[in-house]
């Protein structure tokens, strides 16, 4: 009888410890705070770039291997940053729509590993600066992703274990699902959310003039 | 080399067909390759470093609008074999497909529908977009040369030269 009680206690303890370990891991990998911008749930996405209280939010759906995203990053984003984000009129959130290749997924996961060390946007920028013209040619493979982290001075033990364990795999998958739910059918795509949840979809790497017209019409 | 197209395009029907192919194909390719956007505003945009891609699209459309009407003329007027039209259509199709698979909606739809096979095909067509377009142009140039030669023989244009 005593053996049975001891065995039951051990089994219950193992189950509780397992459940606690599982949920504690899930909590570190998936933020639980609900965050909505218009119809788009952005709880699992990037940190906010710019003033979180800005009247306009630009939600970008992108892939780190997409050359149109590269074009937008280098041509349009600097103007938007200067005119709208730095001035507090708008902020930006990045949602992964990583669909172009296998390295797109690991690149997206790597950005959240950098976020763990407070360097999400710096890592995001280094990926779009280092993008090469060919998809899955190795420029964003695991070794290169770690090399980017190393050049940024991140804690490599933390970063490596995060990337190798695929800690943020589920988060990236949830982002992809969220992007599709929001109506993104390619990258880059944007949802501009203004006051009163007014929103406008912009598909493709459109020029600054289009973003200016849309944002100005909202504020 | 110029007398044959002059003969074909002296007929308004073929001239109209040529214009339709040129502008129709150009519009579709510019839209798919994201040089023009229709929403929320109609706008054209050539990002830096993509000028050569744009030039290839224009050349591809120009050659297609020359080769296809000339082959249609040969088939209808001269009752020529439809098989010989293959080069023109093939070249145009290959050139068009090259730009279609990218991060845009078409590439996304292909990858979503066909999974890893679609992703592999899309990756190939995206990575080799420029060489594929150049190959398509070479095919079209060859088709143009072959068509002109055939028409010259079939219409006895050589005798007029």
Features:
A: four-stranded mixed beta sheet, 9 helices, B: 161 residues, mainly alpha, two-stranded antiparallel ribbon, 6 helices, 2 strands, 75% helix
Describe this structure in words.
- The complex is a heterodimer of chains A (219) and B (161).
- Chain A has 219 residues and is of the alpha+beta class.
- Chain A is 52% helix and 13% strand.
- Chain B has 161 residues and is mostly helical.
- In chain B, strand 1 (36-37) and strand 2 (43-44) form a beta hairpin.
- Chain B is elongated.
- The A-B interface holds A 63, 66-69, 71, 74-75, 99-101, 133-137, 185-188, 200-207, 209-210, 213-214 and B 34, 37, 39-41, 43, 45, 47-50, 102-109, 111-112, 119, 122-123, 126-127.
Uncertain stretches of chain A: 17-28
Strand order of the largest sheet of chain A: 4-3-5-6
The tally of domains of chain B stands at 1
Please identify the structural class of chain A as seen in this structure: alpha+beta
Query: Could you say which overall geometry of chain A the principal axes of the C-alpha atoms support?
Result: globular
The number of distinct structural domains of chain A comes to 2
**Share of helix of chain B, binned:** over 70%
Kindly report how far apart the N and C termini of chain B lie: 10 Å
Q: Let me know the number of strands of chain A.
A: 6
What profile does the largest beta sheet of chain A have? 4 strands, mixed
Spatial shape of chain B: elongated
């Amino acid at each position: 009888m005593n053996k049975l009680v001891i065995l039951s206690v051990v089994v219950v303890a193992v189950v509780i410890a397992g459940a606690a370990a599982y949920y504690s891991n899930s909590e570190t990998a998936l933020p639980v705070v609900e965050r909505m911008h218009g119809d788009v749930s952005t709880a699992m996405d990037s940190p906010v770039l710019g003033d979180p209280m800005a009247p306009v939010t630009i939600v970008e759906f992108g892939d780190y291997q997409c050359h149109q995203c590269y074009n937008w990053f280098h041509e349009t984003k600097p103007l938007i940053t200067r005119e709208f984000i730095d001035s507090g009129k708008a902020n930006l959130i990045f949602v992964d729509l990583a669909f172009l290749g296998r390295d797109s997924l690991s690149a997206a996961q790597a950005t959240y590993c950098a976020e763990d060390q407070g360097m999400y946007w710096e890592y995001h920028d280094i990926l779009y600066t280092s993008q090469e013209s060919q998809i899955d040619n190795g420029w964003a493979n695991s070794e290169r992703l770690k090399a980017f982290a190393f050049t940024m001075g991140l804690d490599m033990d933390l970063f490596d274990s995060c990337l190798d364990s695929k800690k943020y795999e589920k988060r990236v998958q949830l982002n992809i699902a969220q992007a599709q739910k929001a109506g993104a059918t390619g990258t880059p795509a944007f949802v501009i959310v203004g006051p009163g949840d007014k929103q406008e979809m912009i598909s493709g790497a459109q020029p600054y003039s289009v973003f200016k017209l849309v944002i100005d019409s909202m504020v | 080399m110029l007398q044959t197209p002059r003969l074909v395009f002296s007929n308004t029907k073929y001239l109209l067909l040529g214009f339709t192919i040129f502008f129709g194909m150009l519009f579709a390719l510019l839209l798919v390759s994201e040089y023009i956007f229709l929403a929320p505003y109609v706008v054209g945009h050539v990002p830096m470093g993509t000028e050569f891609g744009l030039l290839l699209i224009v050349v591809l459309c120009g050659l297609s609008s020359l080769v296809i009407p000339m082959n249609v003329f040969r088939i209808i007027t001269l009752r020529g074999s439809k098989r010989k039209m293959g080069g023109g259509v093939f070249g145009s199709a290959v050139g068009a497909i090259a730009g279609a698979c990218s991060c845009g909606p078409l590439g996304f739809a292909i990858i979503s529908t066909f999974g890893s096979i679609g992703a592999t095909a899309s990756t190939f067509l995206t990575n080799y977009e420029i060489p594929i377009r150049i190959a398509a142009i070479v095919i079209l140039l060859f088709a143009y040369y072959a068509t002109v030669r055939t028409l010259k023989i079939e219409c006895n244009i050589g005798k007029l030269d």
